[in-house]
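Tokens for Bifunctional NAD(P)H-hydrate repair enzyme. Go.
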Amino acid sequence: MKILTAAQIHQLDLYTQEAEHITSLALMERAAEAFVGWFTKHTSLQKEIWVFCGRGNNGGDGLAIACLLINRGYKVKPFIVKSGPLTSDCAANLSRLEKMVAVTSIVTEEDLVKIPANILIIDALLGSGLNREVTGVYAAIIDKINATENKVYAVDVPSGLYSDYPAKHAAIITADHTITFQMPKLMLFLSDHEAFTGAWHIVDIGLKMEGAADIVSDYSYTDAAVIHKMIRKRPVFSHKGTFGKVLLIAGSKGMMGAATLAAKSILRTGAGLVCVHIPGSGVDIVQTLIPEAILSIDPNKEVVTVLPDIDGYSAIGIGVGLGEHPYTADVLEELLVSSVDPLVIDASALNILASNPHWITHIPPNSILTPHPRELERLAGMKFQNSWERLHKAIEMAKKMQVIIVLKGAYTAVVMPTGVVHFNSTGNSGLATAGSGDVLTGIITSFLAQGYSPADAARLGVFAHGYAGDAAAEVKSKAGMIASDITEYLPMFFLDFEE
């Protein structure tokens, strides 16, 4: 699913109106119905609702929403900002609403009234097309709403939040829920904005998505529909070699758990064979916990000091639990220089790269790097001021290095060498647990070994990791789940997505 700018969404609105021979007012009514459909499923009929509407089309949405809620038996108190002229569709919906209920006009800050406790607030002041600083009466209303403890539901985007780039002003609604139309907006994926958006939900307003086919976007959202098209059927006539051989270089004394988590995830994701190269002290641990794995044993008992034979493997992953001993760093350098095919590089290997930036030129093109935000800072050699700066640095680095960067976090961003970003749709806060990243490395490496392109392996891996985490959370809870639970629930992904 493409993530479009406000201008591109307007273009899609116009395409839909022309293709279906409908007016913009009819499309506004459709959006209002979609909002109300979600809202009525998640709120009580007993609660009074205050709807704050601006002068533009977001306000028009709010007025149409108020009409629909009144028709469904809700007690609604609507407000309209009249500090200037209304758009034609907003004016049309105001005229319709005024025949049903009194609408309070707000012209100046003096017109603001005290907002009572224990009501619900619908924010339809300013929409996704906002491109100016919020001041005056709008800022005053936003401050008034934010000062309450009432639940706030934002229409499309929280008022004051730009949809395409960060807002620098302070006047932004802090919503509990954002009900966004048709597709997510870019700003919903940035951690800095969670306080404003709350939980967000997509509602379908029936835009004709074929109209977006020729619209170019550098951002997309990887949802279930995308994954269904991407995942391949496993052939009936097959053997373990059909599904790839993985070499995992991992582990150090005290960190063998990382190697076991990654290795088990490689197998749970469908690779035919995994060989784990580990220090000697980890043999009993790995052999006991993963009897299916083949071991390559380093002569050193505590750290990896020797690069094993890398010929004959479909994919190689390195870094989980590896440590940063100088001998281990030498192994990474040798691997980078020796490899032609893309690698999966994580954890300690990323930190070694950060300490030896001149090695970065040796990374095979289309390799997959999986940093969390702090690891990305080390690789970039800088501290990031906010999540927007972090994302754009990842884009810059992926293009310069010609690698895929999997920037881990909520809505993990898979950044391509072209600069295109795919945000993930699965996962939850339970994934923020020790070893979760090791599991992800195993999953991505497994998909790569099975013949998926590096781009598809990264997107599939991130989605499957989050999907398994969601399945685990249903049983274990978000707080109670641990990394090995993600691995154990990986089969749920394949049950639901394999043909």
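The chain is about 40% helix and 15% strand.
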